[in-house]
Amino acid sequence: MFQGIWLMIMGFMLWTPGLIPKGCFMNLEEGHLVVRCRSDEALHRAKSLVNIEFSWFLVCVTVFSVSVYLVLARIYGKDSFEYEAIRSESDDIELQKSNTTTKPALQDDGPSSKRFIHDVGKISGYSAGSDMER
Which residue among 1, 50, 78, 112 has the highest number of C-beta atoms inside a 10 angstrom radius? Predict the structure, then answer.
């Protein structure tokens, strides 16, 4: 949105003869009107004006956006709604069933390194024998 409005403003500023910077003119080149400047000084003046214009445009858009935000925050203040988890009864029943039927994947049957090796052996199909535990 910002870029689109900026391009519309620049189009309005560049192709309105009364708003063309001092020392610049419109020239017909290859079927289009092009803004050209007579000297380097006029070109630098035109570039400076565009930079100032962009800065003011950015400030105006920022002030407008913050103003709209503050108005909407006042209208729809944070006291007017609360966040809630959306759950149905069927979700709760399924959750209870899954908690009672699942067993923990790892059981505490010794030091964690041996338990890890033992569980990896189960997963990969290789039984962890005495060679792995040494």
Answer: 50
Looking only at Cα atoms, what is the longest distance across the chain? 93
Q: With a threshold of 0.85, does the pTM exceed it?
A: no
CA atoms lying within 13 Å on the CB side of residue 73:
6
Task: Give residue-wise pLDDT tens across range 66-102.
Answer: 999 999 988 887 665 666 777 666 666 666 777 665 5
Picking from 29, 27, 24, the residue whose alpha carbon sits closest to that of residue 41 is: 24
Q: What is the DSSP letter of 21?
A: P
Task: Report how far residue 41's alpha carbon sits from residue 3's, in angstroms, rounded to the nearest whole number.
Answer: 28
What single letter denotes the amino acid at residue 32?
H
Please state, in angstroms and rounded to a whole number, the distance separating the CA atoms of residues 12 and 20: 10
